[in-house]
Each structure stands twice: as C-alpha cells, then as structure tokens.
Amino acid sequence: MQDTDQSPAERRRLRVRGAILEAAERVFALEGADGLSIRRIADEIDYSPAAIYKYFGSKEELLNELKEAFFGRILESVNTIVDRSEPFAKRARKCTAGYIRTALEKPHHYVAAFAGVAPEMPMSGDLAGFSESNRARAFGILTDLVEEGLESGHFRADLPLLETAKSIWASMHGLAMMIAHFNDFPSMATMPSEMSQDQFIDFHADLVVRSLEAGTEGAR
Amino acid sequence: MQDTDQSPAERRRLRVRGAILEAAERVFALEGADGLSIRRIADEIDYSPAAIYKYFGSKEELLNELKEAFFGRILESVNTIVDRSEPFAKRARKCTAGYIRTALEKPHHYVAAFAGVAPEMPMSGDLAGFSESNRARAFGILTDLVEEGLESGHFRADLPLLETAKSIWASMHGLAMMIAHFNDFPSMATMPSEMSQDQFIDFHADLVVRSLEAGTEGAR
DNA sequence: TATGCGAGTAAACGCTGTTCACAAAATGAA
DNA sequence: TTCATTTTGTGAACAGCGTTTACTCGCATA
To answer: For the domain A1-57, what is the CATH code?
Structure first.
C-alpha cells in the first residue's frame, strides 16, 4: 500500500543513492572505467569517499547497477524499434542492427558490461539471478523473434530455438565489441572501405539474419 | 652475420626479459589481468619492481607484448588447421570454429586483447602498426579465405571482400567473448541446452559461413 | 688502472578500494 | 520534551597499485 513514499527518511536515502549513481554514470560515460573512482564520485557529489559505502557494498556492486541500468536502456530501445506491422524479414534485420547501434551509443558501458572472464564473474553462473536481469529480458525478446521466424516459416525449420538466439546474440555482440574497441572498425584494414559504419552494421545484420532464412536464397 | 649471439651481455638481457614475460604469462593465464601486477611479477622472478622498468617502458607495453604473442599463437593455430585438400565449405567452417576454440584456450588473454574502448586504445587507429601485427596477419588469412570463396563461386558474387571478412571476424569474436565471459554460455538460459559447447561452436560457425554461400540453400 | 655505462635497488609519490573509530544528526519512545 | 537508538557522514589509516628518483654496484672498454 505504501506506494512510492515509504517514509521521509527512505526517500532521502534513495535520493542520495540516486545522486551517487547519477554522478557515476556521468563520469563513466565520459571517461570510462579508468576515470571512475570512488573518490572521484565522492568529489562529484561533495561527500566523503567512505559515505558511498553506506549505500553500496563495494565499487563492483555500484558498477553492476550501472551496467544493469544500461541493459535496461538497450532493452527499451530495441523494444521501441520493433514495429510489428513491418514484414518479418525487415523487422528482424532492424532489430539486430538496432541492438548494435544502441550498444554503441555508450561504448564504455557496453564494453564494461561484458568485461571480465567467467570464473571471476559474479552473475555468470548464477542462473536464478540471470533470469531476472535486463540482460535476460533482452535475450527474451530475441528468442521471441526467433520463435516467430520459426513458426511463420521465415526461418529454416530445423533450427534449434535457443541456440539460434544465442548465435545471433553472439554475432551482434561481436560487431558491437569490435566497433567499440577499434577506433574505426569498418575502415580499419589497409585498404580503405567504401562502406560507412552505418552501412556496415546493416550489412552485418543482413548476413546474420540471412543465415537463418529458409527458401532459395531470397532476393533482396 | 652475428646470428643469435650478439654478445654475452645482450643474451643475458634477453634472458631476463624473457623471464619477465614468462612470469607475466604464467600469472596472467592463471589469475587474469587483475592478479597481474608489476610487483607480483617482480616477486615471481626475484627482482625489485623497479627493475622491470629497465626492460619495459610501462605495464601497458608489457601487456601489449603478451597480447601480440597470443595472437601469434592464434594465427599459427588457425594456420595449421587449414587443410587445403578439404572441400572449401568444410574448410571455411573449420577455420571459423578453430579461431573460436583457440581463442578460448586462454580466455584471459583473449578478453584482455580486446579490452578497452577506442579513444584510449594505443593501436586502434594506428593503421601502420596494425598492418604488421599478428592481429592483421590473422585477418589476412581470413580475407584470403573469403577471396577464395568469391573466386570459386562458393560465396555470393556480390559480397564485398573486406566487409565480409570483417563481418565473419566480428561473429567469431562475439561467440569467443560470450563463452569467455559467461561461465557456460551454451546452457546459460533458463531452459537447459541440448548442445555441448563444442557442438554450439560448430553450429555458430556453420551459420556464419552459410550466410555467405551462394546457391539454393545448399544441402548439408 | 681509470672511466663510464647499464643493471639493480630502496624509498618515495600519488593514486586506488576499503575499513575503522568516532561525531553528528535524524528517528522513535517515554 | 527528553532520552536512547539507529542511521548518516567523516577523517585517518591500511594495504596495494604503477611509476620515478637517486643511488650503488659490477662489468666492459679505453
């Protein structure tokens, strides 16, 4: 019943907590993970460094919250891109390319969200936690898309749903990481590319979706 | 003329330098980037931390050498996989899957090699340096493969060589990163997967190559 | 034998995440 | 209101980090 206002004190606490996250967000987007330190955040909001530990157990915990929020934005963005009135083939490509473009709006966030190797990852093996994360929700709309493709006959019938979705995700992820990592991935090689970054993302998305489509190498 | 032995002093220097890299390699493979510190390396080889700076300008320089060596190993490994007597379609798939498997032999190395975001990357925009790196050489055998696919008619004729190669690389890279990042990517979602990791890598490689192939959705 | 150069070091600087003992303030109860 | 309790914020410190500096030592060459 106590809707948003549980008490004057709680609201104050949430406000400070929000300010910390907002300051972290700001610094992080601008200077990346290297520029973000507890002391830097503390300076930004005119608190002492130790104060932050009243709101977050560790720096890692704080960062995880930032990353999760970022995935929420990707999720939302891809969701708004989806226009169910469009033909499936085009929609699938738009969705794929949209994920990559949204990820690249905040390259620091995206790279950080996938930093670290499995054993030392907190949430990697934790299936219970994963299924409630925004990552998982984003993955969910991907499996929905594949399912629709399978049921409508746009995709080859012998494709396994889950593995196909994960393969798509991996391919999207790969290009997002490459572009984030290299200064200008499309025109990186010795020979200059004719393609702009936007065109290249569409090209890649087309290949990814095309590999799943049934039919005789569909035109266009 | 002076083959390997340029002088007794130089050899000693190279030996110590090698010991530093070897110690770094050892710690890095086991504990990842976080466990690797200059002081840790110094302990490992019984030197003082400052001594390392007589051999490497900075920690970053040392790490770059590790990464470059790692890409040399990937390059070598993928090269030995290639068996030109095999049919092209199979060879292309083996090559793609081989890259991913080799990358995953040392997940810490692979993730570290692609860590960081463009602006703060040393070699990202540096085309001259790139073209001589092992990364570039690995990319070279990829473009060769695509070229062969185009000329032999296995691949659709309208595919742009460079962009296609980069798209493949991105897709391979994506899966390698995903598996390295998540504890068990193939069976990560709520519903357990029927596919082993090895099978999934092959599945992904097949999709990647298939998206380029000409013909009427070739059987097998 | 004298000179100079490179290898190696201890100590320090400034930075990091984190903890601890303590002060201040807000809260709830009498 | 007044007192007690909990929460919030702080300054100082700890251990560790990459890196620099001033210094010593041993070796090679002139």
So the answer is: 1.10.10.60
